[in-house]
Specification:
This protein is mostly beta strands. Helices cover 0% and strands 60% of the residues. The strands form two sheets. Strands 2, 4, 5, 6, 9, 10 and 11 form a seven-stranded mixed beta sheet that branches. A hairpin with a 3-residue loop joins β9 and β10.
Amino acid sequence: QVQLVESGGGLVQAGGSLRLSCAASGRIFSIDYMGWYRQAPGKQRELVALIPSSGSARYADSVKDRFIISRDNAKNTVYLQMNSLKPDDTAVYYCNARMGDLTIGWSTYWGQGTQVTVSS
């Protein structure tokens, strides 16, 4: 079964940093894009950053110059380095990827979510 498992969330003070990781596992033959979304209480889920299999990453305006997305294709893992964190960054962060499963073909997958809380 193909799945995404996130780690690295937690509580941090404003101005601090956190790094999120998301590892894909299962019978994967290929991964297209990988990305991160977040959802704050009472708000819609929003794209934070996305990195394609080739080409440039893209970011939400609110995190540009503070967050960096990267991926390690050998490990089927995507990372989100979050710097200069603000209380507004508090949310549940979800990993998202389009992956090819040897059994069922291409599909979009979500991780279970990891809580990031930034205190002022």
